[in-house]
Each structure stands twice: as structure tokens, then as C-alpha cells.
Amino acid sequence: QLVESGGGLVQAGASLRLSCAASERTFSTYAMAWFRQAPGEERDFVGHITWTDGRTYYADSVKGRFTISRDVTKNTAYLQLDNLKPEDTAVYFCASGQFRSAQRIDYSVWGQGTQVIVSA
User: Fold this and answer.
1) 114: β partners
2) Nearest-angstrom CA–CA distance, 47 and 64
3) In angstroms, rounded to a whole number, what is the distance separating the alpha carbons of residues 49 and 117?
4) Would you list the DSSP string of the chain?
5) Which of 53, 70, 84, 94 could in theory staple to 118 by disulfide, Cβ–Cβ 3.0 to 4.6 A?
6) What string of pLDDT tens digits covers the 120 residues of the chain?
7) Residue 33: strand pairing partners
8) What is the rounded distance in angstroms from the CA atom of residue 85 to the CA atom of residue 87?
């Protein structure tokens, strides 16, 4: 099971840190990913991190503003959102899987999502 937290309502230019806590039983994963879904839109890839070595990869739309990290002792992944823009408004989901992939289909365990709203 994955549980996200940390969303909220912020102004443009602000920062947030989202957390994704994994239960011990879930945690035989290779990669953790973040996706986001704006109202009426598809769920889009944001980035992923390899659990073993911390390698990261990001979508072009967030590169340089968002940072993924993990704390292996807490079984928790993080998504640092900096310099937020109104177009970043979405529900953010974390997911775990056995591949480093930007495709939703490659992730088998999903959290319930946390809402981020960025006002202009």
C-alpha cells in the first residue's frame, strides 16, 4: 500500500514537498514513480527514482523544478515541487513497479493521490 501526503493550496512560485509512504509488505519494488492528473486530463508521468541507487528521471515539463528523492530507512519517496505554476495544479499519485518506466501500465501499486492547487 502507498499513501501520499503533503498536497495543498499554494500561490505561484511557492514550494511543496509530497511524501509517499510504502508499507513494508509493498516494498519489493525497483522503481517509484510520480504521476499527476489535472481535471479532464490523462494521468501524466512526472518522474521516477530507482530504489536501490537513487537514480532519477523526469518529464521535460518539470525538469529543473521538481526533485524526487527517497529515504530507504522510512520506505518513503518524496517529490519536491519548487517554483510552482498554475499549470502544475493536479492530483499527484505515486506508484511502485518493477521497471524504470514512464508508462502507467508498468506500475502495479498506486496511492490514492494528493491534491495540489496552485493559484496565480
Assistant:
1) 92
2) 12
3) 24
4) -EEEE--EEEETT--EEEEEEE-GGG---SEEEEEEE-TTS-EEEEEEEETTT--EEE-TTTTTTEEEEEETTTTEEEEEE-S--GGG-EEEEEEEESS--S-GGGEEEE---EEEEEE-
5) 84
6) 899 999 999 999 999 999 999 986 555 678 999 999 999 999 999 999 999 999 999 999 999 999 999 998 899 999 999 999 999 999 999 999 988 999 999 999 999 999 999 999
7) 48, 95
8) 5
